[in-house]
Design a protein that fits this description.
Radius of gyration: 21 Å
Oligomer: single chain
């Protein structure tokens, strides 16, 4: 993430609401009516992409039972968003039908108020540090890892969803706060999630082959 989203140097409170300040400025220019998602993302630019990734990763990062197809519903958009991290687009790409959708200014103001409360709590743990792990080049590495985790989330892999999702969420928050230490923690969690998913895939593959061989052996007795 570029230095323009880094701490202004005064205090951490000013930094931790940086991308929310952009939204506040938008509200000051749009007193009434609605604003499109495309306009919001263009204003937030790269921070908007990272914030979107954090929001989409959150539901699958919670380790609770989910209906079939739930993780795929979030995994596919995550694949699209994390791929944009690798290619470093200036602002998040959204489908036209979504970019044209609008949100009421009153609703956006309410959401920003709630978001500021959440980010104020997060600022107790997140702060700008280890900046070499939040550079543009390093963010591409994070993007590749996040994309691999997104693929794991999209696939119906037992235990292959929550840990990778948590890794993506932690990395995204680390980038939003320019917190290189948190980015490294998120990378470690992501790698762990990919290893667990890989082990499960290998185990299920061997289990499937073993079951197939037993069925084949049982069938040969009747021939």
């Amino acid at each position: 993430m570029s230095n323009k989203v880094a701490n202004t140097g005064k205090n951490n409170d000013e930094y931790q609401v940086h991308f929310l300040v952009v939204l506040r400025n938008m509200l000051s220019k749009h007193k009434n009516g609605s604003i499109s998602f495309g306009e919001i993302m263009n204003a937030l630019k790269e921070e908007g992409l990272i914030f979107l990734i954090a929001i989409v990763a959150l539901p699958t990062a919670i380790p609770v039972p989910t209906p079939p197809g739930f993780t795929t519903l979030f995994g596919i958009p995550l694949c699209v968003l994390t791929a944009q991290m690798v290619y470093k687009l200036g602002a998040p790409w959204l489908p036209n039908w979504l970019a044209r959708r609008t949100i009421k200014i009153e609703t956006l103001r309410m959401l920003i108020d709630k978001a500021e409360t959440v980010f104020a709590m997060l600022s107790r743990f997140l702060k700008p540090r280890y900046s070499k792990f939040t550079t543009v080049n390093f963010e591409r590495i994070v993007g590749v890892l996040a994309f691999l985790c997104s693929v794991s989330i999209a696939l119906p892999i037992l235990f292959g969803n929550a840990i990778p999702s948590a890794g993506i969420l932690i990395m995204a928050l680390g980038l939003l706060y320019q917190d290189g230490f948190m980015v490294l923690i998120g990378m470690a969690v992501s790698i762990l999630g990919l290893v667990v998913a890989g082990v499960v895939v290998v185990f299920m593959s061997f289990l499937g082959i073993e079951v197939f061989n037993k069925l084949l052996h049982s069938g040969s007795k009747f021939l």
